[in-house]
Design a protein that fits this description.
Layout lengths: L1 H18 L5 H8 L5 H23 L13 H18 L3 H9 L3 H25 L13 H5 L3 H18 L12
Length: about 180
């Protein structure tokens, strides 16, 4: 039954990604240039709603969810974010939008997928010699925002979710460019 839920959620996300044109490298570029915020707003809304639903569900069915907190490796997160961001900006795809692009028949999405697989292979090959030694640098351990603020996690998730939704509602989708003269 879990597979049925996973397929349903995956298809729903794919439809939404396609609907807001997040599978278009031109749309991704417009978002990265902060000219059109639709993809950014979509992702923030997905995070906010998903977070609120998951933590609310954890109150009703605590054993259904496994919140396995991973250690916070600051250097690893910064390097991974840099590599992901460069690949995202150069290809115009992330893993989810890449899959939707392939489904739409976009050939460039196939090359983006192959680049991601090649990057994962290189990461695996250099992990023990280059990456693993960096992990202990600035290792903050298994911390959460709730731990840092010393507050209960479910109310915090609801507050953060509401703040995300308020920000998404407040932000414009289309950002006008200023004239060169003005």
């Amino acid at each position: 039954m879990k597979n049925v839920y996973a397929i349903f959620i995956g298809v729903a996300m794919g439809l939404l990604i396609q609907r807001i044109r997040a599978s278009s490298p031109a749309m991704i570029a417009a978002n990265l240039r902060l000219e059109n915020l639709s993809v950014i707003k979509f992702m923030a809304m997905t995070i906010a709603v998903g977070m609120m639903l998951l933590y609310a569900l954890s109150l009703v069915i605590p054993e259904a969810l496994n919140f396995s907190i991973k250690p916070t490796y600051v250097v690893g997160v910064l390097l991974g974010g840099l590599v992901f961001g460069v690949g995202f900006a150069l290809s115009g795809y992330c893993p989810g939008t890449c899959a939707v692009g392939i489904g739409e028949g976009r050939r460039d999405a196939v090359f983006a997928l192959l680049g991601g697989v090649a990057g994962a292979l290189v990461f695996t090959l250099v992990y023990t010699t280059l990456i693993e030694p960096l992990l202990p640098v600035m290792d903050l351990g298994k911390i959460t925002l709730a731990d840092a603020l010393n507050v209960p996690i479910v109310p915090l998730a609801m507050v953060v979710g509401v703040l995300f939704i308020a920000l998404i509602t407040w932000l414009p989708t289309e950002v006008r460019k200023q004239d060169a003269a003005g």
